[in-house]
Design a protein that fits this description.
By secondary structure, the chain is mainly alpha-helical. The chain has a domain of 101 residues. Helices cover 91% and strands 0% of the residues.
Length: 148
């Protein structure tokens, strides 16, 4: 029995490798997006804590300069939150780009795997036909040798 040897196996392997790389890039982009979202959550939490601190301080006696520093810090956090939202949008765009890239690579791989599958099927049919012809020839030789 002959061994199946696909002429374009290296292309199939390359397409699989490209798909795997695209999966890793997507995973990395998703990780960056999650990190940006986590940072935004932390910034929002910091702002909430500072607002609560200002409200608590307003009940107690606090200097105007301390109150101004706290308000300046809240303003700074607000600016960080705006920047982080932009970072999140950028990260979301990257994730979508990586998803599209992965989809393309998956389709490429699928096409080549289907071509390989068809070639294997054709090889198997030819192999069965060859084996059947050998068996037919052996039966013919036996029949001819018994007839003599």
């Amino acid at each position: 029995m002959l061994k199946f040897n696909y002429a374009f196996q290296k292309v199939v392997d390359l397409k699989t490798s490209e798909k795997n790389h695209a999966e890793m890039h997507l995973s990395s982009a998703i990780g960056r997006l999650q990190a940006e979202e986590q940072t935004l959550t932390q910034l929002s939490s910091d702002k909430d804590l500072m607002v609560d601190a200002i409200q608590d301080q307003s009940v107690n006696s606090v200097s105007a300069s301390q109150l101004q520093q706290m308000q300046d810090y809240i303003h700074y956090i607000d600016q960080c939150i705006l920047q982080k939202r932009q970072d999140i949008q950028t990260a979301q765009v990257k994730v979508e780009e990586k998803k599209e890239h992965l989809t393309t690579k998956m389709l490429d791989e699928k096409v080549w795997l289907q071509a390989r599958g068809k070639a294997l099927e054709s090889f198997q049919k030819e192999e069965l036909l060859r084996e059947q012809n050998e068996l037919d020839e052996m039966a013919t030789v036996r029949f001819a040798s018994r007839a003599h």
